[in-house]
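Researcher: I need the complex structure. Ligand is zinc ion. Inputs:
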Amino acid sequence: MKAARIVKPKESLQVQDLETPKPKGSQVLVKVLASGVCHSDIHLWEGGYEGPGGQFLKTTDRGVKYPVTPGHEIAGTIEAIGEESECLFAKGDKILVYPWVGDGVCPACRVGEENLCDKPKSLGIYVDGGYADHVLVPNYRYLVKIEDDMDINEAATLSCSALTAYNAVKNANLRPDDNLVVVGAGGLGLMAMQLAKAVTGAKIIAMDLEDEKLKQARKDGHADDFVNSKKEDPVKAVMELTEKMGADAVIDFVNASKTVETDMQILRRRAKVVLVGLYGGELKLNLVTMPTRAYRLIGSYTGSLSDLTELVSLANRKIIKPVVSDRFKLDQATEALSKLKDGKIMGRGVINP
Ligand code: ZN
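Model: Output:
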């Protein structure tokens, strides 16, 4: 099998010939047809991300080992199955992989939040993932069947991008009369807008620095209002759009010092701020306003397997539609990551091995 691997952080990915694994027990070998290119792949590639005080937090300190094959948004077909999984799936089934594999025994795993496992074994981060023509899935229960007519590239984006957006919308706990500000109108932001509209009915204000992304938020995200935070004062703009009340919730898909500083100034009492993006930095908090205005700061990371099955149900019925804008071949993996890093991917990029 071929895989595009990060051999050393910051270096171009290498397409390597590896031995194709043979699934044993409840393992399944999946033929990868599409693998999404995600912002967190950039951190894996760069070997870490910025923490407080400009400090660099290394992936190797979190248990990542190089070389590794990135790619955690994997859709494809079943190629081979271990002897214990035969009854549930058949060769050729069209499936989506839930990549947020946990150890199965920690308190998070016990309540079905494997994505928050104490000892994660996520595919494409700790274990080889989907930037390859094949991937070994440790157990058939991490597979979700998808409809034959679902676009395979769009399907791939469900397992991280859309899943993260869905869990973030759930964490915002919105009501139909709420105002929601979505910061960052990239792939995740667009999906969160679609989901919030479909599932909660909240009024959506899209915020971004680029008019083109806001235009797409109108078209694909079905947002109600738009704020270009480069061209206008975002605090003033949100206050005007919410009749001086502020937002009931903000979901921040950038999550940089600058965006969250703004978030904290546009909140109505009881507002929730859901932090999702992995840009990084730090925040100074006005501590007294936290209790007096009863704000809630919530971190949201991917989603559970049950969230994914709900999401696939929405996608199977075409209630949401992921936006895939760029397609790459396996040997273009470095180019794909560079393009994403430069903010030049307008929806989601996928690799077709
Ligand atoms: Zn991801």
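Model: Summary of the prediction. Residues 38, 40, 72, 160 surround zinc ion (CB under 6 Å).
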